[in-house]
Amino acid sequence: MLYELTPQFIVLLIAIGGIAGVINTLAGGGSNLTLPALMVLGLPADVANATNRVGVLVQAVTVVRGFDRHQQLPRGDLRAVVWPTVVGSVLGSAAAAFAPTVWLKPALLTAMLGMAALVLLRPDVVAPPPGTTPYRVDQRPSARWVLLLAGVYGGFVQAGVGFILIAALAGALRYDLVKTNALKMLCTLFLTIVSMALFIWQDMVAWVPGLVLALGTMIGGRLGVRLALKASQRALKWFLFVMTLCASAAAMWL
C-alpha cells in the first residue's frame, strides 16, 4: 500500500481530524473532510473508507465517555437503540467490503440530500420542542427500521451516518439534540466496531494514517462535547442545518 505521510500531512490530518471530530459530535458529516484527505494521501477509495473508521472509533469512545460523565447519555433504552444499528452494520460492512466502490458516492449523496430536505421542510422533526418526553423504541417500532437503515448505511460508508441517526433518535424517538448526539455517538461506536472487524479481516486498514487521524478526532470529540453541553437547542439546530447543507454540497464533489 503506497502513500507518503510527510510531516506536513501529519499536521493536516490531525487538524482535519479535529474539525471533523467537532462536526461529528454536534451534527454529522465530518467524514466528508477526512475521506478526501485520506484519498489525497494516496489511499484508494475503499481503503480510505476503511481507514477512516479508526478515527471514528476513537472519537466515538471519547465522546460517549464525555456525555456519560455529564449524565447526558440516556441509559433506559440503550439496548433497544443499539441492536438495530449493529445488525444493519453487519449488512452494510459486508456490502462495503465486496461491492464496487462506485456505489459509495450515490449512497452518500442520497443520504445527504434526504437529510437536507428533512431539515429544510420539517425542522421540527430533528429538533423537538423543549420539554418533549422521549419515546422508548417499543413505543415507536418504526424507529427500529430507521436505526437498522442507519446501521446499513454506516457500515457501508461512514460519511453522513450521523444525520440518519439523528433522524431516528430526534425524529422518531424525540430526544433533545444533546441526548440525541450522545446516543448517536454510542450507536456510531458499536456500528464502527462491527465494520472495523470486517475491514481488518479484509486487510483494508492503513494503520499509520488512521491512527494519526484518530488523534485529531479524539481532540475534536472532546471539544465537541464541551460545545454541545454549553450550546442552546436553537444553536445546535442551526449548526445541524448548516452542516447538512455543507455535507450535501460535499457529497456532490466527493
UniProtKB/TrEMBL annotation:
Where does this polypeptide localize? Cell membrane
User: What residue intervals traverse the membrane?
Assistant: 9-29, 81-99, 106-125, 145-170, 182-201, 207-229, 236-253
Q: Which domain of life is it from?
A: Bacteria
Q: Which UniProt keywords apply?
A: Cell membrane, Membrane, Transmembrane, Transmembrane helix, Transport
List the record's Gene Ontology CC terms alphabetically. Answer: plasma membrane
Q: Entry's Pfam families? A: TauE (PF01925)
Major localization class: membrane
Under InterPro entries, the record lists: TM_pro_TauE-like, TSUP
Q: Topology versus the membrane, per the UniProt entry? A: Multi-pass membrane protein
Signal peptide range equals none
**Which family does the record claim for this protein?**
Belongs to the 4-toluene sulfonate uptake permease (TSUP) (TC 2.A.102) family.
Query: What's the protein here called?
Result: Probable membrane transporter protein
